[in-house]
Amino acid sequence: xxxxxxxxxxxxxxxxxxxxxxxxxxxxxxxxxxxxxxxxxxxxxxxxxxxxxxxxxxxxxxxxxxxxxxxxxxxxxxxxxxxxxxxxxxxxxxxxxxxxxxxxxxxxxxxxxxxxxxxxxxxxxxxxxxxxxxxxxxxxxxxxxxxxxxxxxxxxxxxxxxxxxxxxxxxxxxxxxxxxxxxxxxxxxxxxxxxxxxxxxxxxxxxxxxxxxxxxxxxxxxxx
Length: 224
Description:
Layout (H helix, E strand, L loop, with lengths): L1 H5 L9 H10 L8 E8 L11 E5 L10 E4 L2 H10 L3 E3 L1 H8 L7 E4 L4 H5 L2 H4 L17 H10 L1 E5 L5 E8 L4 H17 L10 E8 L5 E3 L7
Parallel strand pairs: 3-4, 3-5
Antiparallel strand pairs: 1-7, 1-8, 2-6, 8-9
Helix pairs in contact: 2-8, 3-7
């Protein structure tokens, strides 16, 4: 940590490109660490009209193989498999999840079976796996949803403290690719600014890698 902190000024705000390079320079894990972004917004998430939630297709993906489970009726199974879903089915997987199995990253389903999926709230809710129409994971376009998620589409949501926290890539990515992914996310967040939000919307931005220190990004350089 001392070596990491000696490579930059932890109190200074950097441009996005500089911050992306610093995060790479201060990552010392033996594995390919994920790179995360934390965006603090000037919203009150307790108010429904200030909730910020959306999806974004990161131009360079997130750098990991996302395990996708599709819960659908038999007529959609072939479409899901062709699009690259890792697991496809319905009742057997519902029972499996009830038994504690959650070895997946994303669940995609269709409106007609949400009754069965909704009953899994206790298992899926705490892990953030519950499908949601707003994030595009409850849809009739099963194949497209699988393809998008495999290609790097992520969904994000402001937490109760007003921060959006999500992964934008891996430490092995070039700094330009990390910056490109971060810009795409920030631009999407800016477009979702609630009309009820007053004052500064983009309060602070920080980049970090797994087990690495946070690097502050100058918010004004991102306001697009």
